[in-house]
Specification:
It contains eleven helices and 17 strands. The protein has helices spanning 10-18, 87-110, 140-150, 184-201, 207-210, 215-222, 262-271, 289-302, 319-329, 435-441, 449-460, and strands at 27-32, 45-53, 58-67, 73-82, 120-125, 131-137, 156-161, 166-172, 178-181, 229-238, 274-281, 308-313, 340-343, 365-366, 413-421, 426-428, 444-445. The strands form three sheets. Strands 14-13-12-11-10-15-16-17 form an eight-stranded mixed beta sheet. Strand 3 and strand 4 form a beta hairpin.
Length: 461
């Protein structure tokens, strides 16, 4: 329990520890460092340095606190000086150094909550409420992978925010989605309710059996007469047509109040056998986090996780939710080197808050959308009204779905380079199209994707 109303200052802490130890008689003075700073973390490591002052008749002992992560930094607590520098004085100062570091270290260890004012504590929680496997993290983006890791061996995880002095609890649902609760009791109750619900629906099955990818069998039935295995190199999901900005260069056109449904996502996974990269687009994709979470959860159930993911966002909404979900999925991506999340930074997007964006702290953050001088533009949507430099103009390309040269129809192995699924379920082979052109030129909806591919194969044959 925290007893301090505010963090200790380095000078205050140095003076307090000095009062708890016995000084050798040769110590002339003890001085807190002139630049007193807040101590906001409990994971500092003490170190010291003893110097003989050959110009005078004294020995100097400096004591520091060092923090190795995220950036190596050290703060000096204070200094001791002796009256002389003889051999006995050096021994006495070494003893003082040991006493100070032992007393200070023991105090922090027995009062950790008084020293931890930033960062996060993540602990596995058993059914009886006991904790284990506790880890401390300085940022959300390093803490959330620990939540996922601990949930593999614990039913619940406590996530404690030191700055806010608040805790929340996580559990993993049978659908593979991470759920958050305000109390452990609420988390446990939700888990028990889920078990009872599953037992009511499937009295002969255990909850664990529900997690099996039986949906994969359903998907095989949905293939009908098509026995081809279809690999999609880049699956683009237009998870929403909503947007919280109105950029003049937007090729999509005006925002629409339309989100991709769960039914459409299920149809995608029924129609596609393997996925290279999934790209979440819009609109502003972070405005429909439910669709992003649902896709990953269902992809696990179908046994069709993509090899990598990519999201481009304006960074104006739900950044923490987006970061948490991507961090949860990142460890299971086969091709992590191709994973990315990018912020749009250009003459149409205000860059004021981007340097502080939590997304920039992700290991897979990509700067591919940071183009202060602007994009090459496609004259569709709102961009059609702009006067575009011909050197910066990209001509619209076909909406047709295209088979890759890697396809082998005789072996029943087909590869589609790009599959763009609009929020309403219409499909094209091109991600760079306005909403209006998608509506006009899309020949199929996602439920007819396999038929479209079979038609391509027959035309080739």
């Amino acid at each position: 329990m925290r007893t301090q109303q505010n963090p200790y200052m380095t000078g205050e802490f140095f003076t307090m520890i000095c009062k708890q130890i016995e000084f050798p008689k040769i110590v002339e003075t003890s001085v807190p460092d002139a630049k007193s700073r807040l101590i906001t973390r409990a994971d500092g490591v003490f170190y010291s340095r003893i110097d003989q002052n050959w110009a005078g008749d004294s020995i100097r002992l400096d004591v520091w606190l060092e923090y190795p992560a995220p950036k190596n930094r050290a703060v000096r607590l204070g200094t001791f000086l002796t009256r002389d520098r003889g051999p006995h004085a050096m021994r006495d100062m070494a003893r003082l150094m040991a006493d100070f570091m032992y007393t200070a270290g023991r105090f922090i260890k027995t009062h950790p909550e008084d020293f931890q004012w930033e960062g996060y504590r993540v602990s596995g929680i058993a059914e009886d409420g006991t904790s284990s496997g506790t880890v401390y993290c300085d940022r959300v983006c390093t803490a959330m992978p620990q939540v996922v890791k601990l949930l593999k061996t614990n039913p619940y995880v406590q996530f404690f925010d030191y700055k806010e002095q608040e805790a929340c609890y996580f559990r993993m649902g049978t659908n593979g989605m991470l759920s958050e609760y305000g109390t452990l009791e609420a988390c446990q109750k939700a888990a028990q309710d889920a078990i009872r619900e599953n037992e009511a629906k499937n009295p002969a099955e255990s909850p664990e059996e529900e997690c099996r990818p039986e949906a994969e069998e359903t998907a095989k039935e949905e293939k009908g007469d098509s026995m081809n295995e279809i690999f999609v190199g880049n699956l683009c999901l237009e998870v929403t047509r909503r947007c919280n900005m109105g950029c003049a260069h937007c090729l999509r056109g005006n925002a629409e109040d339309l989100d991709m449904s769960r039914e459409t996502i299920d149809q995608v996974l029924e129609q596609v056998d393997m996925i290279g990269q999934v790209t979440f687009t819009g609109g502003e994709p972070s405005l429909n986090m439910d669709a992003i979470r649902y896709f990953f959860a269902q992809a696990r159930r179908y046994g069709k996780l993509p090899r990598s993911f990519f999201v481009a966002t304006n960074g104006k909404a739900n950044q923490e939710e987006l970061a948490i979900e991507l961090l949860k999925q990142y460890p299971d991506m086969e091709e992590q080197e191709f994973c990315g999340v990018a912020l749009s930074i250009d003459e149409w997007h205000d860059p004021q808050d981007y340097d502080r964006s939590i997304l920039k702290g992700l290991s897979f953050y990509s700067d591919c959308k940071e183009k202060p001088d602007g994009y090459s533009l496609i004259p569709e949507g709102r961009a059609a009204k702009l006067v575009i430099d011909p050197e910066k103009m990209i001509r619209p390309t076909s909406a047709h779905i295209v088979l890759s040269g890697n396809s082998d129809p005789d072996a029943g192995a087909l590869e589609v380079e790009m599959l763009y699924v609009a929020a309403d379920g219409k499909i094209t082979g091109n991600c760079d199209m306005s909403y209006a052109r998608i509506e006009k030129e899309a020949e199929y909806t996602i439920s007819g994707f396999r038929a479209a591919v079979d038609k391509l194969v027959s035309e080739l044959g």
